[in-house]
Design goal:
Helix 1 packs parallel to helix 3 and helix 1 packs parallel to helix 5. This protein starts with a helix and ends with a helix. The chain has six helices and no strands. The chain has 175 residues and is mainly α. It is elongated.
């Protein structure tokens, strides 16, 4: 394993850790308001949040093992995630589902790219990343199955959430 690959793996892990913090906060905000706007979704949102908390812990533990600090965008991701969760939670199940589908589409695409880039170079980063893919896919598929694909909220939120998520990942990789 060479130093450049380890540095890239560490940068990726830092961004993923910050992203998982953002995801925990998205679900936290959604849970708070879904109690009023979409109570039938609260159990699923709690399950998703517990997955994201575990993912954050996986990346945090690997960063700690490497002696690396968290990403400078960690708190920004958390604050942005909470705002996104509160706003979309306010508008109910269609907005919640559209948000999760959009975020997870971007996340899954990035995780697959990360695995390809790191393959053969950073097995510890690959192990950490690969360990979360199935649950991220579950979040995407369950949210998509709620049947909100062509809804007003999906059409409105998909480009906003997709581009915002891409921008946060881009920025995190450069900090």
């Amino acid at each position: 394993m060479n130093a450049a690959a380890t540095d890239l793996g560490s940068r990726i892990l830092k961004v993923n850790h910050a992203g998982e913090h953002g995801a925990v906060n998205i679900y936290t905000g959604q849970i708070l308001l879904a109690r009023l706007t979409a109570p039938h979704m609260v159990a699923e949102l709690r399950e998703f949040r517990s997955h994201e908390q575990r993912h954050r812990a996986i990346f945090g533990a690997e960063l700690e093992r490497r002696g690396r600090p968290r990403c400078r965008s960690y708190h920004l991701c958390g604050a942005g995630g909470l705002v996104l969760g509160l706003v979309t939670g306010l508008f109910g199940s269609a907005a919640i589902s559209a948000t999760t589908t959009a975020v997870e589409s971007v996340v899954l695409r990035h995780l697959e790219h990360q695995l390809d880039v790191l393959r053969g170079n950073d097995p510890d980063a690959i192990t950490a990343i690969a360990s979360i893919v199935a649950e991220e896919q579950q979040h995407h598929d369950q949210s998509l199955a709620h049947g909100q694909t062509g809804s007003f909220w999906a059409r409105l939120l998909d480009p906003i959430v997709t581009n915002s998520t891409e921008a946060v990942i881009w920025m995190g990789m450069r900090l």
